Amino acid sequence: MASENNEPRSEEMPRKIALVTGITGQDGSYLTEFLLEKGYEVHGLIRRSSNFNTQRINHIYIDPHNADKALMKLHYADLSDASSLRRWIDVIKPDEVYNLAAQSHVAVSFEIPDYTADVVATGALRLLEAVRSHTVDSGRTVKYYQAGSSEMFGATPPPQAETTPFHPRSPYAASKVAAHWYTVNYREAYGLFACNGILFNHESPRRGENFVTRKITRALGRIKVGLQRKLFLGNLQASRDWGFAGDYVEAMWMMLQQEKADDYVVATEESHTVEEFLERYFRPSEVDNLKGDASKAKEVLGWKPKVGFEKLVKMMVDEDLALAKREKVLVDAGYMDAQQQP
């Protein structure tokens, strides 16, 4: 069809399609925002729950009946259910798959180790096999991203890079190591375009409140407005490499845009103690010092973090202070109690 100036109108390129597990989590929400801005159609797999847990993506959700504008769509599936994974891959036909889903709380993994291993390790294997079998049957190319973790390095001295040996110190970390090597195996054995992103700690105002950084900033806000009096502290000397989750999801995407699949450490290359961030609880096996070497990601991907440690902390504190003020209004009006905080 010709345009008004009689020049042929260029045909629009078809949208890329991404499938994201863990879309309702911190990383999933930032990745979805990023991909939508890039013009993708994004499909997320979510678990059935009696409680809504989509608060991190509600602001970008559009009713699917509005087909022209609803570029994010949600589907029920589970990493413990191989048939649902294969079915949705066949239906959605994604160009890229991002496996972000996990039981991701390190301390909790000591309480439910079987479940953690089934979802984090074997779940990744199920998804890899679903992608592989789909590519074989369809002849399509699907790129796969596996979310790794700095916890895989565990007791290995810093700085930790792609070639640093793993020494996991929790069921969660051991499960992530298994998922990492499953991904490498499918890349080498089947030629699957599969990348591991070994992401060091990345935080944001969307971080779950059972994670140490949100425990700190949430408590600071509540203490300031009088809803809480104490914050119980644990191992203050544990050191972490903390970055902003919004920066890190860009690195995930960059990995899948390369000509060759590979594995990358993503980190700020700065280490800070929990004392600097204020609070932490001991685990049965503690990891003392994690600091990443992201030189490969910088050189090959051209990635570097935009948000530094101080800006990240300020961002989280400001958000949680505003949340505490809203909570205080409801408490004062008698619509909720202060949940008997210490």
Roughly what percent helix? 25-40%
Task: Provide a count of the helices.
Answer: 10
State the oligomer: single chain
Average predicted local confidence, pLDDT: 89
Broad structural category: alpha/beta
Terminal residue distance: 69 Å
Please trace the helix and strand order, writing H or E for each element.
Answer: EHEEHEHHEHEEHEEHEEHHH
Rg, rounded, reads 21 Å
User: Which ranges are low-confidence, i.e. pLDDT below 50, for 5 or more consecutive residues?
Assistant: 1-10
Q: What is the overall shape?
A: globular
How many beta-strand runs?
A: 11
The profile of the biggest β sheet is: 7 strands, parallel
Strand content: 5-15%
Strand order of the largest sheet: 3-2-1-4-5-6-10
Domain NAD(P)-binding: 19-281
Organism: Brassica napus
EC number: 4.2.1.47
Family: Belongs to the NAD(P)-dependent epimerase/dehydratase family. GDP-mannose 4,6-dehydratase subfamily.
Provide a descriptive summary of the structure in words.
Helices cover 39% and strands 13% of the residues. The chain contains ten helices and eleven strands. It has helices at 26-37, 82-92, 106-111, 113-138, 171-190, 212-224, 245-256, 274-277, 295-301, 309-332, and strands at 17-21, 41-46, 72-76, 96-99, 143-149, 194-199, 202-203, 239-240, 243-244, 263-266, 272-273. The strands form three sheets. Strands 3-2-1-4-5-6-10 form a seven-stranded parallel β-sheet, with helices on both faces. β5, α5 and β6 form a beta-alpha-beta unit. The longest helix is centred in the middle third of the chain and has 26 residues, at 113-138. Residues 19-281 form the NAD(P)-binding domain. Its EC number is 4.2.1.47. This is GDP-mannose 4,6-dehydratase.
